[in-house]
């Protein structure tokens, strides 16, 4: 049996996703994603928003909307204390044009027909509503159920029915290299004592080097982007 997902457990997991520790192997992309979403949220029209979180098992980005919520509904295939509706993203049980904002982060790679999910989001969004999406482009597999990785060309195709689309790398090629190195070490360093040492020495060092080099090297190279954030407006 799996661990029981108590409210304290899922809230803590969400906080770690929103504000990752420097020894988190995914720190570079998680930090960058938060900054991207903060900027997009600051420019959303309207003060009180009805929000749908597709794959909202832990809702890491809900705190970024504090003070601007009229309602927040989370759907997921896994029931947790934060999930309101158990459903598939391809079959959202909501009426058309019900939400001002839909959030879907690191979910689309598990969906066998991602275009259907995107079309469902388009259906439940109000005119002028926004869709925030985060997807992997390069990373080791996380689960047997994963189906896809996404590049900008595929994302533009998926979002062709939206009026406005922005695709932003969650870090350029430099941070992509360092994040991938950390992801690989995280897989292969398995002995508990060695893993403890890696998490407190090499892992944060690679994170700091990736962030530092990307900030000082004037390169916009995006050949090795490992994650993308997408903003789309209906």
Structure, briefly:
With 234 residues, this protein is of the alpha/beta class. Helices cover 37% and strands 21% of the residues.
Q: Hey, roughly how much beta strand do the residues contain?
A: 15-25%
Query: Could you give the order of strands across the largest sheet?
Result: 3-2-1-4-5-7-6
The parts where pLDDT drops under 50 for at least 5 residues are: none
Topology order in helix (H) and strand (E) letters: HHEEEEHEHEHHHE
What structural class do helix, strand and pairing data support?
alpha/beta
Radius of gyration: 18 Å
| Average pLDDT taken over every residue | 95
Q: Number of helical segments? A: 7
Oligomer: single chain
Question: Top keywords for this entry?
Answer:
234 residues, alpha/beta, 7 strands, 37% helix, globular
Plain-language structure description:
- There is one protein chain.
- The chain is an alpha/beta fold and 234 residues long.
- The chain is built from 7 helices and 7 strands; from the N terminus they run ααββββαβαβαααβ.
- It has helices at residues 7-18, 27-42, 114-124, 152-158, 173-188, 192-200, 202-216; strands at 49-54, 69-76, 85-86, 99-105, 125-136, 164-169, 227-233.
- Strands 3-2-1-4-5-7-6 form a 7-stranded mixed beta sheet, with helices on both faces.
- Helix 3 (114-124) links the parallel strand 4 and strand 5.
- Helix 5 (173-188) packs antiparallel against helix 7 (202-216).
- The mean pLDDT is 95.
List the helices and strands and how they pair.
Elements: H1 7-18, H2 27-42, E1 49-54, E2 69-76, E3 85-86, E4 99-105, H3 114-124, E5 125-136, H4 152-158, E6 164-169, H5 173-188, H6 192-200, H7 202-216, E7 227-233
Parallel strand pairs: 1-2, 1-4, 2-3, 4-5
Antiparallel strand pairs: 5-7, 6-7
């Amino acid at each position: 049996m799996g661990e029981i997902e108590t409210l304290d457990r899922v809230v803590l997991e969400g906080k770690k996703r929103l504000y990752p520790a420097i020894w988190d192997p995914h720190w570079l992309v998680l930090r960058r994603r938060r900054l991207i979403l903060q900027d997009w949220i600051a420019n959303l029209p309207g003060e009180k928003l009805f929000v749908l979180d597709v794959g909202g098992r832990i809702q890491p980005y809900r705190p970024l909307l504090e003070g601007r919520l009229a309602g927040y509904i989370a759907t997921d295939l896994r029931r947790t204390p934060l999930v309101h509706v158990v459903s598939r993203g391809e079959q959202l049980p909501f009426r058309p044009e019900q939400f001002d904002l839909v959030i879907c982060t690191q979910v689309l790679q598990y969906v066998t027909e991602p275009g259907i999910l995107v079309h469902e989001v388009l259906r439940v969004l109000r005119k002028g509503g926004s869709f925030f999406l985060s997807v992997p482009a390069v990373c080791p597999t996380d689960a047997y159920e994963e189906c896809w990785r996404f590049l900008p060309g595929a994302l533009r195709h998926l979002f062709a029915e939206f009026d406005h689309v922005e695709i932003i790398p969650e870090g350029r090629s430099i941070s992509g290299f360092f994040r991938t190195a950390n992801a690989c070490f995280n897989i292969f360093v398995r002995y508990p004592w060695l893993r403890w040492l890696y998490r407190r020495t090499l892992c944060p060092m690679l994170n700091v080097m990736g962030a530092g080099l990307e900030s000082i090297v004037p390169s916009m190279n995006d050949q090795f982007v490992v994650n993308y954030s997408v903003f789309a407006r209906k």
